[in-house]
Amino acid sequence: MTADPAELIFFGEMNPKVFFEQAKRMGIPTRQLEDKSTRDHVWRCCLQEIRVETVRAVASRLGISLTEDQTRTIAAHSLVPEVNLDPVSLTDEEREKAEELYYHAVKAAVARQGQTLAEKTARADAQKMVFVGENGLTWIQRISRKAGCLVVLGMFSLGAGSMLGAMVVVVDSRQ
Question: Could you give the CA distance from residue 158 to residue 44 in angstroms, rounded to a whole number?
């Protein structure tokens, strides 16, 4: 398992082999994975387990002492809202440790892209990550996500309408 703090933001260790191994550990036959809800459940469990290992490795590398419960809680917290839709509460001690882990994650993710980030900005971003993990998305973020889906559907409808219009013109011109 990688101890790269950036992996607290990215999902680099996820691959089909890991997915099918997780399904096997959960006792789910391959045939049942045809069901979308079953696949989604295995996928979330898989990402959770990967994140637990990542939190454990990163905390160890940084010298941050975590109990098994703290590791699992911070791992679940770090997956809000992308994987875990429900917020995850932290104790004061977990919040402090999560902020430190997220600070290093933000710095590493930015460095991975060949950029630099001021410590104050990285700490503010880490605090925002803790806030989102404990509170979920704001109502504005929820609306914008839903509006984004509506915009895509609207663009698809416009595209389909244009395509039908063009087909009518082509058919009409051949007569």
Answer: 34
- For 49-63, write each residue's pLDDT tens digit: 989 999 999 999 999
Q: For the chain, list the strands marked E by DSSP.
A: none
Tokens of 170: 């082509």
Phi first, then psi: what are they for 117, rounded to 5°?
Answer: -140, 135
How many residues would you count in the chain? 175
Alpha helices in 30-117 (DSSP H): 36-62, 68-78, 92-112
CA distance readout (Å), 159 to 20, 84, 140: 38, 33, 28
Q: Are 56 and 66 in contact (CB under 8 A)?
A: yes
Sign of the CA dihedral with 18 first, then 23, 25, and 30 last? negative
DSSP tag of 10: S
Beta-carbon neighbour count of residue 18 at 10 Å?
A: 14
Q: What is the pTM of this model?
A: 0.74
> What 8-state DSSP symbol labels residue 30?
G
pLDDT of 97-152, one tens digit each?
999 999 999 999 899 889 988 999 999 999 999 999 999 877 776 776 666 655 55
Tokens encoding 90: 């932290």
Map out the domains of the chain as residue ranges: 5-136, 137-175
